[in-house]
Amino acid sequence: MTTFVATADHAEIVAQLLWDFNNEFDAETPTVQDFAQRFRHLLNRDDVLVLLAESAEQPAGFAMLTFRPTPYCDGPLAHLEELYVRPALRNTGIGSRLLQFALDDARVRGCCEMHIGVDAVDTDARRFYERHGFSNLEPDTGTPMLCYLREL
């Protein structure tokens, strides 16, 4: 298994993986072509990182991170936008390898934190991230943290 930084040349591969991910969970999703067009642009940005994992020279999964400025530290804040491993390849260490690569890159960039949005009902994902040291509890008070969103 290999893990590497995706380039604009990988836009269609990443697009297909993201489309597969959304369809696996019956989420509304843009087309693969729409995703590919967006990834061709995103993969050229310095504040976006997409990692690809391949197993037997086939796409196995990907992780997408964005980085934004924050007044809370000198470096950026990392946000793990997506992490997906093909169902047949789960529980083989691919997700952990992608996440570790992402954490290592965030540290090199001087990030002070990494945020991840996880659905409350997705207990498998929550356990996975907690196993890797993430928490949904405020460090100072131990109270649960929530994420609010509003479509525009």
UniProtKB/TrEMBL annotation:
GO terms for molecular function: acyltransferase activity, transferring groups other than amino-acyl groups. Residues 5-150 form the N-acetyltransferase domain. Coiled coil: none annotated. Pfam families: Acetyltransf_1 (PF00583). The keyword Cytoplasm does not apply. The keyword Transferase applies. SUPFAM superfamilies: Acyl-CoA N-acyltransferases (Nat). This is GNAT family N-acetyltransferase. It comes from Enteractinococcus helveticum.
